[in-house]
Amino acid sequence: MKALVAVKRVVDYNVKVRAKADGSDVDLNNVKMAINPFCEIAVEEAVRLKEAGTVSEIVAVSVGASGCQEQIRTALALGADRGIHVDVEGRVEPLSVAKLLKAVVEQESPDLVIMGKQSIDGDNNQTGQMLGALTGMGQGTFASEVKVGEGSVEVVREVDGGLQTISLTLPAIVTTDLRLNEPRYASLPNIMKAKKKPLETFTPEQLSVELKNHVTQSSVAPPPERAAGIKVEDVAQLVDKLKNEAKVIS
Amino acid sequence: MKTLVIAEHDNASLKGATLNAVAAAQALGGDIDVLIAGADCGGAAGAAAQIPGVGKVICADNAAYEHQLAENISLLVAEIGADYDNLLAASTANGKNFMPRVAALLDVGQISDILSVESADTFTRPIYAGNVIATVQSTDAKKVITVRTTAFDAVPAEGGAATIENCDAVLEAGVSKFIREEVAVSDRPELTAASVVISGGRGMQNGDNFSLLEGIADKLNAAIGASRAAVDAGFVPNDYQVGQTGKIVAPDLYIAVGISGAIQHLAGMKDSKVIVAINKDEDAPIFQVADYGLVADLFEALPALEAAI
């Protein structure tokens, strides 16, 4: 069976992103870019399924400007077989990404689509679910365990208060949570090999997808600052402050 | 303007998050109806009818909706939502699961996790783990919105008398099946609803040491949480996790023990009213957001704290 894995190029998770002083947008000059951590988990899961003999081919797809080919190469180095780059400049909304991915799904007919539950830039947590609605596929979001069976997949989902297990008819969509697996590091030989793996580029026009903006970002601002606190000497002083100053315990 | 709030419930009763979502609906103004989709969910519908300011409760009671499968719920919400200007749900694991599907079915964008309503089409929401707050404007006629519950004070649960209307629509996508659920049973308050939260991090060293937090949690009627590092290390289950991709909490008192304060953790708790940090590393970033910082060995500080309160 074939797995399609979506990956996104985002600011590295160690970077503390700030709003520009004029509030027009976030300041992304010279910041380190990386594969979205949840997407990396998605790639790892597909590779493990391939190693287990369940998946025979892994296609990595990314939507974005030319820079995201770097993240497709990362996915190829981790074990994906070939890449698809959908070339779009600027901010692409989740619904637009979902429409482009739907076109790729129609072209590739994967049995399983694996993607991150959210990207750590926009924090939207929408694309997988939207792709599900557009394709009519079932979705196993926030997955912490994936078991592929005959014509179906069982997904353990992380929900408020515990775990939920559901079964989905294939083809289906899985979105990854942090505990699904621990991604490997790409080895140098594999990074070299990835450079030779096929990577095709498509424009939205070639995929017959018309993009439309639904949400505009008018400004950005830093979150409200917390006033500087104090260091207390010992537990006795802490309890005194909590009782008499903050009045949060009695 | 008409707003439909899709309720969070367990069929028998209404979850508190619904009251925060209704508060966001009130900020939008206009008429508010509530949808209860479930099975044997009369109890939840009855509770929703008590919320002041709610005009009508639509109760879709069918086995297809029992476990909130997103494939089925989204079809129902998209159909009922045809009559509304705004569709709102709390940004819980459940709301996050089905709402984007609704938006895509209606061919509109979704505004995730709103913090405030600036006008009928303009909202604020956190991006980059809450390091930046974006003001966003929807250009869609129909708005699909999820609400960060900690940003809206809950409306009262009682005092209203809405009518309950039954909805017979059975929409089943037929592509997903519920198998089972393992829900942690605890006598403590729910993490997202507790007024006091005490969380442990990697500094706790192992899962057994979380018992040091329990005595304090008992005395303060607190919920117990954890950083991602503690969850990843296997000290405690995942549903303890507070942070960007875990639970977002904003209690009156948050006590962070042995937590360094990675931005991903701060994203989940920095709106707490009072923050206490106990850490032996005086340079830990958690102290930058703490109102009261105690530089101490937690294995000495915790028993002392338990004895002192």
User: Could you tell me the mean pLDDT of chain B?
Assistant: 95
Instruction: List low-confidence stretches of chain A.
Output: none
Radius of gyration of chain A, rounded?
A: 21 Å
Q: Indicate the structural class of chain B.
A: alpha/beta
Oligomeric state as shown: heterodimer
Report the average pLDDT across residues of chain A: 96
Shape descriptor of chain B reads elongated
Q: What would the principal axes of the Cα set say about the shape of chain A?
A: globular
What would you call the structural class of chain A? alpha/beta
Strand order of the largest sheet of chain A: 9-8-7-10-6-1-4-5-11
Total helical elements of chain B: 8
The SSE string of chain A, one letter per element, is EEEHEHEHEHEEEEHEEEH
Number of strands of chain A: 13
* Share of helix of chain A, binned: 25-40%
Question: What is the strand tally of chain B?
Answer: 16
Straight-line distance between termini of chain A: 61 Å
List the helices and strands and how they pair.
The complex is a heterodimer of chains A (about 250) and B (about 300).
Chain A: E1 2-6, E2 9-11, E3 33-35, H1 37-51, E4 57-64, H2 69-78, E5 82-87, H3 94-108, E6 112-116, H4 127-135, E7 138-148, E8 152-159, E9 162-169, E10 172-176, H5 188-194, E11 199-202, E12 215-221, E13 230-232, H6 235-245
Parallel strand pairs in A: 1-4, 1-6, 4-5, 5-11, 6-10, 7-10
Antiparallel strand pairs in A: 2-3, 7-8, 8-9
Helix pairs in contact in A: 2-5, 3-4
Chain B: E1 2-6, H1 17-28, E2 31-38, H2 42-49, E3 56-61, H3 70-80, E4 86-90, H4 93-105, E5 110-114, E6 116-119, E7 122-127, E8 132-138, E9 143-147, E10 163-166, E11 176-183, E12 196-200, H5 211-220, E13 223-226, H6 228-232, E14 253-257, H7 263-269, E15 274-279, E16 292-295, H8 298-308
Parallel strand pairs in B: 1-2, 1-4, 2-3, 3-10, 4-9, 5-9, 12-13, 12-14, 14-15, 15-16
Antiparallel strand pairs in B: 6-7, 7-8
